[in-house]
């Protein structure tokens, strides 16, 4: 019994993996679900990411970056799982927003959802992390291991693309 207790003692000073992961679990599930579009697949991806994170926890040098580190592991795990299953992922805006009372607003949301579905997965992820989950540019840059300027320009180009697509809405569907 003493040998088992040695295995589960913290190996380094500071917060344990368990305490850090408890603070992140809800956010990790939401991100996984946005990729997998299925509760069971999202839970599987979160579980696999946590196992991978636990195995590599001793390599994490600065615990204050745990959130971005584990998020990056989760995103990579989700992308790998999607490649393995060869699924296409679409963002379903309706699951994250309150239903619209105004018909015109509903039409705009449907247009937005359609435009977001056509984005590349990385573009959709950037927009979700920045505007839905509230990550800063610096945090996103750390997660993607890219310079902040690159992330800013990618977000700006993606937003410009979304705006251009939405501006064409009246021409595509006729004026309301």
TrEMBL record:
Superkingdom: Bacteria
Ranges of residues in domain RNA polymerase sigma factor 70 region 4 type: 110-161
Record keywords: DNA-binding, Sigma factor, Transcription, Transcription regulation
Pfam families, A to Z: Sigma70_r2, Sigma70_r4_2
CDD domains: Sigma70_r4
Keyword Cytoplasm tagged: no
Domain RNA polymerase sigma-70 region: residue ranges: 20-87
Membership in a protein family: Belongs to the sigma-70 factor family. ECF subfamily.
Name of this protein: RNA polymerase sigma factor
Protein source organism: Sutcliffiella rhizosphaerae
Lineage start: Bacteria, Bacillati, Bacillota, Bacilli, Bacillales
């Amino acid at each position: 019994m003493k040998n088992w207790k040695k295995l589960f003692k913290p190996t380094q000073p500071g917060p344990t993996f368990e305490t850090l992961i408890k603070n992140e679990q809800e956010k990790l599930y939401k991100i996984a679900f946005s990729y997998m579009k299925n509760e069971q697949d999202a839970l599987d991806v979160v579980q696999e990411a946590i196992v991978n994170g636990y195995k590599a926890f001793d390599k994490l040098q600065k615990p204050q970056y745990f959130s971005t580190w584990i998020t990056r592991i989760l995103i990579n795990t989700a992308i790998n799982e999607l490649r393995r299953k060869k699924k296409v992922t679409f963002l379903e805006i309706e699951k994250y927003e309150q239903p619209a009372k105004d018909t015109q607003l509903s039409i705009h949301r449907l247009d937005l959802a359609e435009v977001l579905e056509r984005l590349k997965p990385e573009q959709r992820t950037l927009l979700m992390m920045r505007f839905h989950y509230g990550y800063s540019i610096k945090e996103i840059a750390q997660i993607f291991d890219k310079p902040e300027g690159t992330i800013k320009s990618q977000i700006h180009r993606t937003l410009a693309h979304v705006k251009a697509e939405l501006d064409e809405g009246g021409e595509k569907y006729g004026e309301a």
